[in-house]
Amino acid sequence: MIKQHLKTAWRNIIKNKLYALLNIFGLGLGIACCLFLFLYITFHLSFDNYHPQAETTYRLVNELHFETTEYSKGASYAMYTALKSEMPEVDKAAFLLSNQAFTIRIGEQLYHTGQRAALTSSEWFKLFDFPWLKGNPKELDEANTLALTRKAARQYFGDTDPIGQVVLVESKHPFKVVGIVDDSCTNTSLGAELYLSFTSIKTLQPGLFDDFFTAWGYINSSNTVFVSLHDTSQKDAVERRLNRMTVQHFGEETARIFNFKLLPLTDTHFDTRYGGTVQRPLLLVLAIIGGCIMVVAGINYVNLSIAHQARRATEIGTRKILGGSRRQLFAQFMTESTFVTLTALCIALILIYLMLPLANQYLLFSEPIQVLSWYRFSAFSIGFWIVVSVAAGAYPAYLLGRLNVFDALKNRLPIRNRTGRQALVVLQNVVAQVILMATIVIVLQVRFLRHTDVGFDRESVVTIPLPKTAGDGRDAIGQYLDSNPRVAAFSFCFQPPASRSRYGGTVRFDEREAWETWPARYVYVDSAYVHTFGIQLVAGRNIRQDAAMPEYLISELMVSKLGFDNADDVLGKPLLAGGMNDEMKGVVVGVMRDFNTQSLLTPIEPTLAGFKADMQTMLAVKLATKDVTGIVADLQGQWKTHFPDAVFEYHFLDEQIEALYEKEILQQRLIWITAAVAVIICVLGLLGMVSLMTQLRIKEIGIRKVLGASMVGIVRLLSTDFVKLVLIAVVVALPVAWWIMSKWLEDFPYRIDIQWWMFASAGAVAVAIALATVSWQAVRAALANPVKSLRDE
User: Fold this and answer.
1) Looking at the structure, do residues 488 and 544 belong to the same domain, yes or no?
2) Is there a single domain that holds both residue 639 and residue 672?
3) Per the domain annotation, does 210 fall within a domain?
4) How far apart are alpha carbons 81 and 279 in whole angstroms?
5) Fewer C-beta within 10 Å: the chain N or C terminus?
6) 300 with 428: CB under 8 angstroms?
7) d(CA 680, CA 730)
């Protein structure tokens, strides 16, 4: 019987290729979208939960309670040693100095590690499940040793076995390769590509103060401390002891600012306050969007199935006369539905196979996803197929299976009731239009973030990382740039405006005894910084690098926070900035126009700029020519001359600023893709509905044509109802989309204002697409020969 049902299903598909193609493609597209979102969501939910002690492992983080609370993922080495040796609740502890950048030489070839290097010990690999493919983690406790991930080993050594090979770090410190670390699991927030022995830190950073190892307050975001507890119930006790020890080291008044906490390992990927990259609410939103896409695809499938099966009324009546039962007819239609959905699933899997590498390369390049378990993915796909087959196929099968034999033979179908079909069309279009309206708002907001600068000029600026030991080469490069007419300005600085850096701290102004209760952001600059980036001075003068005492520029907001209305009133006043120039007291010589030191995702903060030679790690060049290729090539030649042991890398400032909005750009692209999928499926759904109505009214259309109706009149007859349904969907979608996007925009300190035309344009697009889709099918019906539609009467 099943074999016969399958043969019948296949014959119907071959006989009606267009409807079958629309049905299968629309459903396959929806399933592919849902499967992709399943892979994306499950990949991120799996981050770092595969480590054996994941449930009892925590990262040491802290809150700083100023006027507003700040969050830091950093700690100090002294805290690590205290946790390891003084707290019996701690089972294991590990320290990682992360985000380190080095130049390495292998043979005659130079490489720059970016910020993918780290310093650690074997303790790190006892706590985390990063298997060593070769070597023993114990060897990393010896000085001048390093381990590479498999990817890095292949990049640096090709097919040669790297074990025992010598790598020159900073071209002068020989390090022996002692291990290869498995990096096949990319679902981690803790990975590095090069692990250098922590015992070599003095070799790599000879200027490092001894306070790094002993001072409780030597806190840096690169200092990563993880602990594993014997029992999760001990978490609160460890936090209380840490904060009591902070009082002992800082004193009660200063310690009141700090609150050290243990962040669960399984939350580190999701807590953006401490460097997490994905928020759990985003994953929930994507899951809801995936469900909506599947609802749209399911409605589309039902409509097209009914439109197609309506042509088989005579076949249904004949089957019943020949003894076919309602159960047999239901089984027949369910078999066809199962076959169609299985074909759609196969198409979806092919789309996933073809599109996943492209998505990783162009969409998810910062965190490419991988199929963690083919078994789970297969089980989800099969389960999803079964649910879709039953949910989408049962209604058409039930509706057509219960036809009265006489109604079927006379083509009087129960599907003439319009209310249910219209409700499905409205619901389908509401979902699609909400997504489309949200897409327009998100695109405009992200565009605003990417192209709006606050207080500085980013056009035609190239940034080049400086080697750690620039020496006289920096002066030579400076002389070359100063004499080059293609260079408008240049500056040696720590970071350009709008970077990921969050250096800062509180300050003590003038003769005030107390430190301010708010933090300022520190910007390490030279005297050319304000000119290079077009930062306007509103009072005073620029700093002098050779001044007898430190000189500072402060922002207008900082003037206001200090309690002054007039910028001139702060000039010449002493200022003590914690951590800057060894906390030497300087003087305020100028006031800058406000600019954002980070991205527009955070509000402008009080900013302080001062000179510090050992913090000048970057060269920023403002170009006065459009011949970027030529000037960059000349710079590279100069670089090789003056810095033969350094890799020449350059980046455009506007590209660096765009990278600050990586998460928002990803959201924009994901929602744009889902909107396109929803619109395509809606088009197919409208095509199915107009096909159904044409099928039901084919004889009416023939009679109207015989009586003289024009093609325009028939097109209007068939199109008006559907356009009305789309307009109703627009009206329903408007308040829903407005509310959702208003809530979404609340998280941005700098945001666009929602305008009526944003939603109106989305509605206009939806109506235009609907009108084009319906009119195409209506024109076909209007051009049909009326004799063919009336010959059976």
Assistant:
1) yes
2) no
3) yes
4) 32
5) C
6) yes
7) 17
Going by pLDDT thresholds of 50, 70 and 90, the confidence category of residue 21 is confident
Which of 268, 292, 312 marks a domain boundary? 268
Closest CA to 432 of 247, 270, 296, 325: 296
Identify the residue whose tokens are 């039962």.
325
DSSP sequence for 455-480 = SS--TTEEEEEPPTT-THHHHHHHHH
| Model pLDDT for residues 355-385, shown as the tens digit of each residue | 888 888 888 877 888 888 888 888 888 988 8
Q: What is the reported pLDDT for 138?
A: 94
Same domain assignment for residues 40 and 74 = no
CA within 13 Å, CB half, 83: 34
Residue with tokens 């107009």: 690
Domain boundary among the residues 388, 416, 444 is at 416
Q: Which domain holds residue 643?
A: 461-659
Contact between 623 and 486 (Cβ < 8 Å): yes
Residue 180: the pLDDT is 96
Whether residues 627 and 497 fall in one domain: yes
Contact 517, 583 (CB under 8 A): no
The closest alpha carbon to 315, from 301, 302, 328, belongs to 328
Same domain, 407 and 422: no
CB count, 10 Å around CB of 109? 9
Residues 238 and 318 in one domain: no
In a domain, 276, yes or no: no
Task: Give the tokens for residue 647.
Answer: 């890799």
Which residues have a Cβ under 8 Å from the Cβ of 663 and sit 6 or more positions away? 277, 278
**How far apart, in whole angstroms, are the C-alpha atoms of residue 203 and residue 709?**
92
Could you identify the residue written with the tokens 């079909």? 421
Nearest one of 211, 263, 214 to 238, comparing CA atoms: 263
Rg of the chain's alpha carbons, rounded to an integer?
33
Average pLDDT over every residue of 294-307: 75
From CA 635, how far away is CA 93, in angstroms rounded?
Answer: 46
Both tokens of 97, joined, read 């100095």
Answer yes or no: is 226 within a domain.
yes
- Cβ-based neighbours of 679, under 8 Å, separated by 6 or more: 432, 436, 766, 769
pTM assigned to the model: 0.84
Identity (one letter) of the amino acid at 111? Y
CA 606 from centre of chain: 28
Helix (H, G, I), strand (E, B) or coil at 71: strand
23: number of Cβ within 10 Å = 27
Query: What is the total count of domains within the chain?
Result: 4
C-alpha–C-alpha distance, residues 587 and 166, integer Å: 49
Judge contact between 601 and 749, C-beta under 8 A: yes
* Tens-digit pLDDT profile for residues 723-738: 788 888 889 989 999 9
Q: What strands lie across the sheet with 487-493, from one edge to the other?
A: 487-493, 618-623, 461-465, 651-652
Same domain? For 79 and 91 the reply is: yes
Find where tokens 């809530």 sit: 743
Is residue 158's pLDDT more than 60? yes
> Is 277 inside a domain boundary?
no
| Range 445-462 burial, b when 16+ CB lie within 10 A, else e | bbeebbeebebbbbebbb
Three-state secondary structure readout of 327-369: HHHHHHHHHHHHHHHHHHHHHHHHHHHHHHHHHHHHCCCCCCC
pLDDT(11) > 90? no
Q: Distance between CA atoms of 542 and 686, rounded to whole angstroms? A: 66
Shared domain for 333 and 195, answered yes or no, is no
